[in-house]
Amino acid sequence: MYAAGSKMAVPSMIPMGTFPPKDAGEPFEESAHILFVGTVLEVDTDPEANENQPNYCLKVETLEMTLQLYLRHEGLIEVGSILHGVAWLFGPVTRA
């Protein structure tokens, strides 16, 4: 990840849907999007998912949160992998 030029720490999370981009010329609408970096704790796959369905369900530990992340990816994701991406959050929030 660092070789790709990312300067985000592991773990980290930015609630990017709560503030407008610096150069936003259009009206900004808040959303539940986050930019995150986290470590994969658990991996479930669905080899029979079609091309429009998620084929991975991952448990990802990021900054003060554990996410259940559903995604479509053609490569290999394993426990211990570092994941960097944008996700849209929904569901109940509880303190563990």
Main features:
single chain, 96 residues, mainly beta, 5-stranded antiparallel β-sheet, 0% helix
How much is the radius of gyration in Å? Answer: 15 Å
What number is the mean pLDDT? 88
Uncertain runs with pLDDT below 50, 5 residues or more? none
Assembly annotation: single chain
Tell me the helix content: under 10%
The largest pleated sheet is described as: 5 strands, antiparallel
Quote the beta fraction. 35-45%
What order do the SSEs take from the amino end to the carboxyl end, as H and E?
EEEEE
Alpha carbon gap, first and last residue: 29 Å
Describe the structure.
By secondary structure, the chain is mainly beta. Helix content is 0%, strand content 39%. The protein is built from no helices and 5 strands. The chain has strands at 12-14, 33-45, 56-62, 65-71, 82-88. Strands 1, 2, 3, 4 and 5 form a 5-stranded antiparallel β-sheet that branches. The chain is globular, with a radius of gyration of 15 Å.
Short description:
This protein is an all-beta fold and 96 residues long. The chain has strands spanning 12-14, 33-45, 56-62, 65-71, 82-88.
Which helices and strands occur, and which strands form pairs?
Elements: E1 12-14, E2 33-45, E3 56-62, E4 65-71, E5 82-88
Antiparallel strand pairs: 1-2, 2-3, 2-5, 3-4
